[in-house]
Write a structure and sequence with these properties.
The structure is a single chain. The chain has a five-stranded parallel sheet with strand order 2-1-3-4-5, with helices on both faces. The protein has helices spanning 3-26, 35-42, 47-51, 54-61, 84-91, 106-114, 117-120, 141-147, 150-159, 165-178, 182-192, 199-219, 227-236, 245-259, 269-276, 296-309, 323-329, 333-348, 377-391, 408-411, 417-426; strands spanning 67-71, 95-99, 124-129, 313-318, 355-357. The longest helix has 24 residues, at 3-26. The protein contains 21 helices and five strands. With 430 residues, the chain is mainly alpha-helical.
Length: 430
């Protein structure tokens, strides 16, 4: 046996396998997911679904089932029997498609929305905003990378306009969060500098997108968890057959009282046992926290601009914080309320007027399931406001975007009445 034959016997199978993978990924595969897969994906809160495209595009295009995107973060994983997905299955003519987990703040949601922008045109959506997102550093790089992949980045870069202040801002944030190495980083630097991508850049983006699209079509439906079977379906028939808001609120209050018996924070017993009982150093640990200065305000602005581009009619919810927890940790509630006011000012100044402000409701027993997430009565109240918005025809919104909300001045502004008046007079275009 010659040396060439020996080498082929060793490396030949590896080379053939690699060539087969390349061929498989280069072939234009088309996907069609079953209704069962879409139903599972809608409540999976899966990074795979969040990062990829085929499942959510098919769901948002579905003519049989009315899927509605619910954008948020970790509160969407608090699945008691009053959770929006359970309530919708029992009482409503739509199905929430949940996009939210710990770390899915504004910027990851922007890239998520961009992947299905055609499907969001002139549709409705729900967007939950947590003031806790608005920390000094904004979204953490590791969280951003976990929920945002190359597929989403390249899809965004393909349509990025270097003349747009919003796209230049987003490109700068990409460079900051991902670094300037690699193709995404180098292309983002060009957009951030106001320079167009070259023909070669676009050829490479299209080639890479073809491979990623095929990967998505082949594999995205294979590893979806069983949240629907375990956490949604069994709870549907735990709700009364007919909708009655007062009865549901009373039932939610009873559930909350039964499940919060071992602590003075009015939080779920098992949450207290696992997260608070043994923890040390929590008293007054948040008294220096502030959410008033953050790059998150700029990140929120590019999300709003994306919604305006697709003429999406959105209802927003601003989350509360548990009042008993707030007193224990020393979190400043005036600061928290100012943060909510600043968020609402940014929304309303640009025509986003459908807002549920729950920031003052953290002292209602049964409204919150733990320290920062609503549950029980909170979910019932949320559903009571959101369902009519989705199910009934709403006035077409008139958005008027203002890039002043991308500015460092806005990101660092303390929202006193005087400061807001001055900002309106000197910075806004309307």
């Amino acid at each position: 046996m010659t040396n060439r034959q020996r080498l082929w016997r060793i490396f030949g199978p590896v080379i053939v396998a690699c060539l087969l993978v390349v061929v498989v990924l280069a072939i234009p595969w088309h996907s069609h997911h079953s209704q069962r897969t879409l139903q599972k994906a809608a409540v999976s809160i899966s990074p795979t679904v969040f990062k990829n495209r085929s499942i959510k595009v098919q769901a948002m295009s579905d003519h049989k089932v009315k899927y509605v995107p619910f954008f948020g973060s970790s509160e969407l994983n608090r699945m008691d029997r009053f959770h929006p997905s359970v309530m919708a299955a029992r009482y409503h003519n739509y199905r929430p498609f949940l996009f939210g987990a710990r770390g899915t703040q504004s910027l990851p949601q922007l890239f998520n929305m961009n992947m299905m922008q055609a499907q969001m045109k002139n549709k409705k959506a729900v967007f939950i905003i947590s003031p806790q997102w608005f920390v000094k550093q904004g979204v953490l790089p590791d969280a951003f990378k976990y929920y945002n992949g190359t597929y989403a980045n390249l899809l965004w870069l393909k349509q990025a306009n270097p003349k747009s202040k919003y796209d230049r801002y987003t490109a700068k944030r990409l460079v900051k969060l991902l670094g300037d190495n690699g193709s995404v980083g180098s292309y983002s630097q060009k957009i951030a500098a106001g320079k167009p991508l070259s023909k070669w850049d676009r050829h490479w983006i299209n080639f890479k997108l073809g491979i990623l699209r095929n990967e998505d079509n082949l594999f995205s439906g294979l590893a979806i968890n069983s949240n629907y079977q375990r956490r949604i379906q069994p709870r549907i028939h735990q709700l009364p057959k007919f909708y009655n808001y007062a009865d549901l609120q009373a039932s939610a209050s009873r559930d909350a009282r039964r499940q919060t018996t071992n602590n003075n924070f009015h939080v779920l017993n098992r949450f207290y046992n696992s997260r608070i009982r043994q923890a040390k150093g929590l008293r007054n640990s948040q008294k220096h926290f502030s959410y008033l200065r953050s790059p998150e305000y700029g990140d929120l602005e590019v999300v709003l601009n994306q919604m305006a581009k697709t003429h999406t009619n959105v209802i927003f919810m601003i989350t509360p914080v548990n009042a008993w927890w707030e007193k224990y940790t020393g979190l400043s509630m005036p600061m928290y309320y100012h943060t909510a006011d600043k968020i609402k000012y940014q929304l309303r100044s640009q025509g986003f007027n459908n807002i549920l402000d729950y920031s003052h409701r953290g002292d209602e027993p049964g409204f919150m399931q733990d320290t920062i997430h609503i549950g029980w009565k909170g979910w019932v109240d949320f559903d009571h406001s959101v369902a009519p918005f989705i199910e009934h025809k709403q006035p077409q919104p008139h958005y008027h975007m203002d890039s002043a909300f991308l500015s460092k001045k806005w990101r660092n502004l303390k929202p006193t009445k005087k400061n807001l008046q001055n900002f309106q007079q000197t910075e806004l275009n309307h």
